[in-house]
Amino acid sequence: MTRSDIMNDPSIGNKAEAFEAFDDIPTNPNLSRTIGDVINARFGRRDMLRGMLGVSASTALFGTAALIAPTKSEAGAKAASRYVFDELTSGNDATHHVAEGYDANVLLRWGDPIIADAPEFDVMNQTAAAQLKQFGYNNDYVGFVPLNDEGTRGLLCVNHEYTNEEVMFPGLGRQDSNGFAGMTPDLIDIEMAAHGGSVVEIAKDSAGAWAVVRDGKMNRRISPLQTAMTLDGPAAGHHRLQTNDDPAGLNVIGTINNCAGGLTPWGTWLMAEENFHGYFWTDKLDGAGKPDISAQPEAAQMARYGVPGMWYAWGQHYDRYNIDKEPNMPNKFGWVVEVDPMDPTSTPIKHTALGRFRHEGAETTVSTDGKLVIYMGDDNRFDYQYKYVSNGSVSDDRAANSALLSEGVLYVARFEEDGIINWLPLVHGEGPLTAENGFEDQGDVLIDTRIAADLLGATPMDRPEDAQPRGDGTAYILLTNNNKRKAGETNAANPRAASDFGHIIEIKENGGDHAATSGTWSILLKCGDPAIAEVGAEWNPDTSQNGWFGSPDNAAIDADGRLWIATDQGSKWGKTGKSDGLYAVETEGDARGTSKLFFRCPVGGEMCGPYFTDDGETLFVAVQHPGTDGTKDLAGFERESTFEDPATRWPDFNDKMPPRPAVVVITRQGGGKIAVS
Ligand code: FEO
Ligand code: CA
Ligand code: CA
Fold first, then answer.
1. Which domains does the chain have, with CATH numbers?
2. Is the pLDDT confidence value at 260 over 70?
3. Is 383 in the pocket of ligand 1 (CB under 6 A)?
């Protein structure tokens, strides 16, 4: 499918669905290789691998068959899940739902004023200037940085991933299918101002209710319209980062498509730049209406990254988003951005050491000897799972800690067929990453991370979304779905062809050390309806009809080390009949592989966040793009949403207000930890 096919496909009704369709275009050309071909040829590592197998015969235990086969505890008895709550009934309707005994209150909506002098939201007369002082659109990652010991005041750090103009702006309708005919410069500026991130102080009152501190001194908006950033690490200053307004290759305006993210142990916020390719434009089209990048000096690299995606019209008005004018500008995006939320005047930093790809998230942990470790997925069909390990160790020196994101080793995962995972270093001069293969220096390796990983023989995955480490050397890798994998392209770690519902892999790093360069892996869940044999789902059979899900996307570990999974089925939710939501997934004991539904999104919304406070008593979840995805499947509505005619007006339910993405805060009635007896 080409871009023009997607634009002219009548079944694709809104931008979110078009995004999914664009995601259907894999850019990895290396699928025909046998796993390990390249690495064996280039590294001569076969003996090493054989040696590892020799000493780990017991890893058969970690093979997929052994661990996914659920065991019943006693005859007929339900295995004991550690999550204490009565699960919701699954379904899909106009509003959100939370398990009985909990409050789920809307805390922050698109347009809510977050700066002291911000105007009230006026959806019929929105301006970029107002938007820059108001909460942005499509909240995705949520993190909480406490400001007092009790954790009753703190900074919410929220990513604003993208915009849905058809439900944001009156009278506009869908724009990507009509050549952006209605996108005036003013509307483009509003879109840009609604992207990026927000830092918002919030506080809990004596009754346990959370509210926004509107005049919080650290409240801040970050956007691709106006926020200056620096680049650091091995690629900073590289000639391939030099642009007309920045001949030194050290600076950039803004960050885009900030999806999931993370917080560092010292309280800075990591914003992952995901589908950056979608924001770049060219005026050069071929006969089929597709971008013609053949004259671009970096055409092969651009093709591998899907640049330019032309999802937005920004490049019609801003040279920096037009590759005809600024061919190096896409190389300044696709990084992880560090923001210090405690200092509203601080300059965000794009850390090139963490690699350039469609970063889904950046969840951190600390290794046994104190190194910073970050797990990061590259969300594209057949792309890879990465991990970064700092050279130095985390210390009490907050300023010094930022250097941990500048000097370290980026690894890409190869999931061996026998349950071993090997982390392959992306280091210039090692293996195939040499000048003769086009890598002049480490900057080249990082700017072309995907191509370097191709050469190393990484395992092409079913769209790696969020990855969530736990302190004990365990990490959970969420593979959301991949309907393009053919029968001959499966591997042990991606075992289903045409996978509509995704799976979750559990990694156990050797020695319980997140810095280890190898470990074992197993499949925790194969998602989808366990009652339909063709789906090939695998759950602990104690999972109820309400508890199974499809398309795992975001994850959190709560104060008790328990795993929670948020879903994003996109417009395909009709295949499960369930809205997106938040599920409690047991990883331990006889109940391993059970799942219970805790929170449900309104129709068309995707479940983002989630984030638990350290005391386990507050859970933040983000409802992204309510009212947009798959609304043709909502009984009684059965059409695409527009500003004037949306499938839901959540969360306001006011005839004058369209649906608004919003962060919801969940607490237990009467207080106490969530899902604990
Ligand atoms: Fe923005 Fe891969 O989800
Ligand atoms: Ca996501
Ligand atoms: Ca997703």
1. 3-274+334-668 (2.120.10.30)
2. yes
3. no
